[in-house]
Amino acid sequence: MRKLYILALVAFFGFSCASGPENPADSVFINGIIYTVDESNPKVEAVAVKNGMIQAVGTTAEIQELVGENTEVIDLAGKTMTPGFIESHAHLMGIGYNKLELDLMYVKTYDELVEKVAKAVAKAKPGDWITGRGWHQDKWIQKPEKMVKGFQTNDALNEVSPDNPVFLRHASGHATFANSKALELAGISNLQGERPGEVEGGEIIVDELGNPTGVLTERASSLVARLVPEETPERAEEALTLALQELAEKGITSFHDAGSGQDVIDLVQKFKDEGKLTARMYIMLTGRQPELLEEWYKKGPMIDSEDHLLTVRSIKLNCDGALGPRGAWLLEDYADRPGHRGHETLPMSVVTEVSEKALPLGFQVCSHAIGDRANQEILDRYEAAFAKNPEIQDHRFRIEHAQHLHPDDIPRFGELGVIAAMQAIHLSSDRPWAIDRLGEKRIIDGAYVWQKLFQTGARIANGTDAPVEPVDAIPSFYASVTRKTLEGLPEGGYEGDQKMTREQALKSYTLDGAFAEFEEDFKGSIEVGKAADFTVFDQNIMEVPEDEILKTQVEMTIVGGKIIFSNQ
Asked: Where is the Amidohydrolase domain (predicted)?
């Protein structure tokens, strides 16, 4: 009897082993609402993962057939999964440093800003620098009584910080606010004269007596910025750690860093080598360091075709300013500042030189352009570079922001194959006051014109421009499909005919983001053979009423099949 029992057990286990999957999955995600961004198979219930790649997609029943003895089974319980969200334009270290300095993003009045500085001064030693970022005078619910050229003055700032230099970056990154102590250290005093305050590519804002008000726009900010003590390696590591944590919590699996130097590349490489890099990085070389570009021209792009964690194959050029500080370079005067058309912050000859040199060497060029003049000038130079290298068809040059376009230039994006790397959240934040800068006609004809760009065949890669805005894809997705402020105004959205569909918005945050970094064959959609990069949300962003979208939370973030964040 005992012998028969043993034989029965052997037969049972033999049968069990034989009936198990030949190639079991490492993990499976079942019972979900999964949007694949694969036109041939747009919606499934489950996904199987093997060696960090997608092994199979299908129904829960189909995927359960790949469950083996050691397979991890994750029950999505009806939650929504999408391809991992790709942040196509933001500033990696800025996100981290923003958490280590004064965060002024949510300040609602000038008095509140001054109060934050006062508290920081109370904790600082005399002479220590007080730094921060995020203020935006046009977003304050109440403006100070004294304003010069649309900006506050530093009188109240000087009262609370007479002995500590203060240097606060505008939310856009295109203006700064300094107290008198900082200006004094920079040698900026009374600037009476024929053209007071003018700096090449920027401006020192002065009052009617020629006294600096503390506001510096565009390249004028460097007069004070160069005095701020350099960051330490330890603080840089802390900032990067905080930034990666923020990306994971916000469901970001890939990140396009919009302009960094070798120091950041080396730090990210260090994190990769140590196994601490939890998002795939696509770093643009900063065009502010010509010697850096020359070094990279010699050695060529660094394309990570093995781990796909760190690639450097693009160059970021900063060609104009932002609308908020009236630095965006326009074809016509600002509606609220006659005689002023913004700033060309980089000679256009440099755009020509870099484009023509980078293209045959395999580098992509990504040029910051917000104003219609800047966009037009850059498209002209891209077109000339393409004409000189007709054999290179797959260049994927980009314009970062492409916020305000002349109607004649909109079709050129599709015709030239230039990617528009736009941040939909800027519509929500900027549109209420942008009409003051541009006037109604220019807004309607060419500002944030997503559908007009799609109609030309152009691709839009979405993002946030963090730390200009929080690195949170949900508000930008909401802005994409509603064209409303985050308060839900106006009814029907601003220029509602330019809204993205939810499918377009999802693609702009996934597959088109991957295309913008030459990685659409590796990631960006949930298809067999692609990377197992996923974002899981607690509700269905593709179907919930639009006023519910902003309540969405990230439940889980998966990179290469590994869960790097869970809200459980």
From this structure: 72-565
- Asked if pLDDT for residue 516 goes beyond 50, the answer is yes
Rounded-to-10 torsion of CA 53, 57, 60, 64: -50
Read off the pLDDT of residues 40-70 as tens digits, 9 standing for 90 and up.
999 999 999 999 999 999 999 999 999 999 9
How many other β-carbons are positioned within 10 Å of the β-carbon of residue 253?
Answer: 26
| CB contact at 8 A, 508 and 501 | no
Q: How many CA atoms lie within 13 A of 460 on its CB side?
A: 32
Asked if the model's pLDDT at residue 524 lies above 60, the reply is yes
Taking Cα atoms as reference points, which of 443, 538, 444, 430 lies closest to residue 486? 430
Considering Cα of 533, then 534, then 535, then 536, what sign does the dihedral take?
A: negative
Report whether 329 contacts 343 (CB < 8 A).
Answer: yes
Neighbours of 372 (CB within 10 A): 28
pLDDT of residue 63: 98
- Closest by CA position to 382, among listed 407, 406, 358, 347: 358
DSSP 220-275: GGHHHHTTSPPPPHHHHHHHHHHHHHHHHHTTEEEEEEEEE-HHHHHHHHHHHHTT
pTM for the model: 0.87
Rounded Cα–Cα distance for residues 113 and 519 (Å): 42
User: 160 with 118: CB under 8 angstroms?
Assistant: yes
Give the number of residues written for the chain.
568
- Here the tokens at position 310 are 């760190």
β-bridge mates for residue 43, sequence order: 35
Angle at 418 (CA atoms; ends 297, 332), nearest 5 degrees: 105
